[in-house]
């Protein structure tokens, strides 16, 4: 398994290099991937075309007519040796999002099951989710779908053995100490514990995807009645939350680390 001092480098096709900090998800490995990607982007190496991150890896795409694979490997290895990337701070600036969500009634059909697996009451489950600042670890599966982590250790609960045929747009789901939210209705093996009106993906928006890897999220529990009002008017700001109103499903954000 790769370690902070020995990340694994893999060739991807003719013009890709994958830098993997761990084969299993940890907060440190994810932090390393985010920080190292930011460093690569800031280095402005001629021939590097694009970078992207998964949960624990950085994919570097390069122009083989401008940069050889050997030279890229030398550059990457030199940068990797500069510091312990797992201890590196998150890229700045980033945003801390405050997102209202309903964890009750029809909007949270599997909260009780998830809480039981986590060994706590439903009320305690909501408290722990609200109290945890979750990092946007990566985006994937569908446009704008974030994977948020990490919840406390007791939330290391498995996915379902079967599939839920469809969760609604805005569904808040949980598994393996992570939360993911859905930009559109879809099948899933994760348990739905809530629902939000915040829309992270809008094809017509100036910024199609609001959340960026490295951003952070705090959920704030609201009542079924308040949530129903948000669903009727998702563009309205929700003034009970801190930060700058975004007018997107009641969510607001603060810019951190400027």
From TrEMBL:
Gene3D superfamilies, per database record: 3.30.1360.40, Cyclophilin-like
User: Which terms are listed as keywords in the entry?
Assistant: ATP-binding, Hydrolase, Nucleotide-binding
Q: Where is this region: Disordered?
A: 238-258
| The organism's place on the tree of life at top rank | Bacteria
- Record has Hydrolase as a keyword: yes
InterPro entries, per this entry? CT_C_D, Cyclophilin-like_dom_sf, PxpB
Tell me a Gene Ontology molecular-function term this record carries: ATP binding
Residue limits of the Carboxyltransferase domain? 7-211
PANTHER family for the chain: 5-OXOPROLINASE SUBUNIT B (PTHR34698)
This chain belongs to the protein called Allophanate hydrolase subunit 1
